[in-house]
Write a structure and sequence with these properties.
alpha/beta, 5-stranded parallel sheet, 24 strands, 33% helix
């Protein structure tokens, strides 16, 4: 140990790399330990960024084949250059990870490639692929940002060839004839949409009797109908109990969750997407006494400090939504606190987005959560069919839904299903951070014509009456 760092970060994902940059900006001497050859973690390398690149390319392919005639643009059936589509995805990932590397150099962050292990408070070992110690770093503070990994499905072995995780689903060498997605959550539906647009028959098998658990029920019902119209097939209330990949494809054994006779489902490719779990293996937490919660996440206090002074944790390894932007905000708040400032993240207002078409986005409480809490609320809704810009765009699927406190008019939740929902939700989040009422949003002058006017009208509907409905 030739030098001591103010902060050693384990994991260069959206939580860790943002924390490292912010810490360096605040004058701390920072080291990063990352096992991948490139920075950015799961999100930039095999998650958020490559999946969005494929979602965009597949959306354009779908538009060219089905949606341009309404605009008077007549084309022959488009042909797919699969190699170019995948090449572009790789270029997007490469440019993004290189951007993070540039920021590390700019901020003089020292990086070490290998797995990080905490041997004692104030000391991190960097391990090579063989498990041998390559470097030992002295640290005044240690930040665990090791992220999460795919949750395995009992009885189903992921080989990343015929039975794939989200990582393998981004690296398929051809468009499968029949793709079965196990799990109707965000990742499964996004990737299922990609391959459906490119030509696959897609069947989604979900343990629950609904898709997208945690999403507002009304939004979910509309969303499932929209996806079904696009060709996705759903088998709900069903569980996969086995998978045989010995033949040319995969034979799944599927049983009703409430009991009944099993059936078999044939697939060329199976995507297992039942969720993610915190990655805490090999960090040495037991050895140094870092406590975990009952759910297997690292327990932290209000300042992201673990049960061991000087050791902190953020992102997917602690409580809260497993989302890249939440991890980034955790990281900023944590290192600002370490540097003597007042860092804070409001986990109740972390926005969530499903990047399908239509997009689904929400922030705050659902109707079901408000009912369970006994909160009296009112609802304002506005359909995109009534929005002039959405009509001009030819994208009128969906609506905006605003939930406000019945007594105070304070906005408690905003839920959007529509073509630009992911962009629109930011306005709702900002308004709610400042405790805006529905009237506040409704009285703000929105530019015309924009799709954001639908949020204004929904807020007016929650407060009193919309103008254009």
């Amino acid at each position: 140990m030739s030098e001591t760092f103010d902060l050693v970060v384990i994991g260069a994902g959206p939580g860790g790399y943002v924390a490292a940059i912010r810490a360096a900006q605040l004058g701390l001497k920072v080291a990063m330990v990352e096992k991948r050859a490139t920075f950015g973690g799961t999100c930039l390398n095999v998650g958020c960024i490559p999946s969005k690149a494929l979602l965009q390319s597949s959306h354009l392919f779908e538009e060219a084949g089905h949606d341009l005639a309404q605009h008077g643009i007549l084309l022959d059936a488009p042909k797919l250059d699969f190699a170019q589509l995948m090449k572009r995805k790789g270029e997007v990932v490469d440019a993004t990870t290189k951007g993070v590397a540039f920021l590390f150099r700019k901020n003089r962050i020292v990086s070490f490639q290998g797995s990080g292990r905490i041997d004692k408070a104030g000391e991190v070992s960097v391990l090579g692929d063989d498990g041998a110690v390559k470097d030992t770093l002295a640290a005044r503070n240690i930040l665990i940002a090791s992220g999460s990994e795919v949750t395995p499905l009992p009885g189903v072995i992921v080989d990343e060839k015929k039975i794939v995780s989200s990582t393998g689903a981004l690296e398929l060498t051809e468009v499968p004839k029949h793709l079965v997605v196990v799990g109707a959550g965000i990742i499964g539906l996004e990737l299922g949409s990609v391959w459906r647009r490119l030509g696959s028959d897609v069947t989604v098998i979900e343990f629950l009797d609904r898709i997208t658990p945690g999403v507002d029920d009304e939004i979910t019902r509309h969303f499932q109908r929209a996806l079904a119209k696009q060709g996705l097939k759903f088998k709900l209330g069903a569980k996969v109990t086995g998978a045989d990949a010995s033949g040319p494809g995969v034979t799944l054994t599927v049983e009703p969750t409430r009991g009944g006779a099993p059936e078999t489902v044939q697939a060329d490719i199976v995507l297992v997407s039942i969720g993610r779990r915190p990655f805490v293996e090999g960090l040495g937490l037991d050895k140094v006494g870092v406590k975990l919660t009952e759910r297997g996440r690292i327990a932290v206090d209000g300042h992201f400090q673990t049960s061991v002074p000087g050791i902190y944790a953020i992102g997917d390894v602690i409580d809260g939504p497993m989302l890249a932007h939440k991890a980034s905000e955790d990281g900023i708040a944590c290192v600002e606190t370490i540097a003597g400032q007042k860092g804070h993240v409001n986990w109740d207002l972390v926005p969530s987005i499903i990047y399908t078409q239509p997009e689904v986005a929400w922030v705050g409480k659902t109707e079901e959560q408000l009912k369970a809490a006994g909160v009296a609320y009112k609802i304002g809704k506005y359909p995109f069919t009534a929005d002039p810009r959405s009509r001009a765009n030819g994208a009128t699927e969906g609506f905006v839904k605003v939930l406000a406190d019945k007594a105070t008019d304070k906005v408690l939740g905003v839920h959007i299903i529509g073509a630009e929902a992911g962009t629109m939700i930011a306005e709702a989040g900002i308004a709610m951070e400042f405790s805006a009422s529905a009237e506040d949003i409704g009285r703000v002058c929105h530019a015309h014509p924009t799709v954001n006017e639908a949020l204004k009208e929904a807020a007016l509907a929650a407060w009193e009456k919309p103008i254009h409905l």
